[in-house]
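Q: I have two molecules that I believe assemble together. Could you output structure tokens for the complex as a whole instead of separate predictions?
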Amino acid sequence: MATTTPAAPAPAVNRPKRRWGTTAVGILILAVMLFPLYWMINTALQPESGLLEVDPVPHGLDLSGFSSAVTEQGGHLLTSLAVALGAVVICLAFSAPAAYGLAQFNLRGAKTVVFGTLITQMVPGIVIANAMYSAYVDLGLVNSYFGLMLADASLGIPFAIVLMRSFMVAIPREVIEAAEVDGAGRLRTFVQVVLPMSRNSLITAGLFSFLYAWSDFMFALTLNTTDHVKPVTLGIYQYIGAHVGDWGSVMAASVLSAIPAAILLVLAQKYIAAGITGGSVK
Amino acid sequence: MSITAAAPAATADGITTAAVAPDPARARRRRTLAQWGFVAPAVLFMLLFFGYPLVRNVVMSFQHYTPSTFFTGKAPFNGLDNWRNVFGDDLFGKALWQTIVFTIGSLVGQFCIGLGLAVFFNRRFPLNGVLRALILLPWLVPMVVSGIVWRRILDQDTGVLNSFLGLFGIGHTPWLTSTHMALLAVILVNVWIGIPFNMVILYGGLQEVPREVYEAASLDGASAWRTFRSVTLPLLKPVITVVLVLGFMSTVKILDLVLALTDGGPADSTQTLGTLTYQNSFVQLDFGAGAVVGNILILISAVFAVFYLRANRNEGK
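A: Yes, here they are, computed for all two components at once.
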């Protein structure tokens, strides 16, 4: 990045010096904000420090913390991945048609549904868990992958509906009518015309519901009573309860669990930008 | 979907393909039904996952749950016993007070710093976009994981924060182990988590303010602070309301972070309504008592939502 310094900001910049000064302040702010994440990586690379003070920079590339994290938490990471992917599928399967219906059909009561969707934000997760636990016991969904996927999907559905609806409203009615004139049924129009046109909002909604499900701790904690289904958030939490001294591998596991967030940040940034411009152009 | 099997639907199907003018009322009803087919599954899902728990919690708060309830299926109604027990316990008042302090402290901290950063990033400078994107990271990392990382940082004897403060002669602060400090420490960590969200939304709001407004204000000779206070802030008001309401909703029900940092301790000094609900239901297995605290939590959120909606409506007039 430093190599492009003199050339990049050249066009239409009045006081380039002062602006790079602002950039320096910005970098400082970022450094302060990201320090805890740096410290997480730093601690992960010093597994020998145990309960001692951690040095400001790692001495070398000691990956033994990571290897024990993979041994301890590898399975839980895979569980997280499976549950989060399942939750995304469920979330999109329910929310995409609903978003389309609310956006394009003049349904009486659509406003009430949108309002209700917004209001769901108000219901605390622990209250949901409190009531759903006994329902899950009755339905045999406790300690099941499917049960946790369903619960995690609920974290993303309201957001996904609101987001995709705001994009699908912008699809011109003529496009949909043209498809229907060509003999496509409602469902085919939705699958072959509407979904491809809303690709960006679909991806954005999917990314966010993945992140919600991946980050979930509360449903994993409350809707599981055995070790059968244990995502990495729950795995790390229980691990520090049992192994107070082994911070190196705890932090290494934390680093691994933060990777999807880092990857999705880069991807989502792009899709959110694409989605917003795509929506506002219409 | 089962409707297609019914007789009237079958005939109606024949009519549409034959393009004979159908009974308009029935056709319209059929169309409406098919259209609701798109929306209904999601509505049903939300009713199950958000509506049902609201009702069920109210019922549960009048039932006597014991550890054996889930084997026997017996949870007899016990009137107001759960409510009396919860309100009679000092821990409830303590958790309520700590929830209020936690929520207000977190919101003030997140909002002020988030607004400051939004204003900062509203200037044009190189790498602005990259820095703004990266600053989102703390918000995207799972909250339990953030909590655990901070637990290490805040460690009294070997944590890096105390090592750093030690350079300025500040003694070893028992961040998470003192009943006086723990709530403050949890608030500080939550402020850190919430800053990116506040910043992004407020930044979006600032971007909507037309540049000409600033130009006009500076032509009138208004100082930067004056412009900010009497031009920017009023224009930003709707966004501020949104960010505070969403912040409130997610802060008041806090659970993950507290469990990861302190497990509600030491001596219940970081217990909130969220953790108390969890403790009652999933640790003590007294789901009735958990439901009582959960209902209070919903009530607080609902009151706040009503105020919010009313404020919005008045604004529209």
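A: One point stands out. Chain A is about 75% helix and 0% strand.
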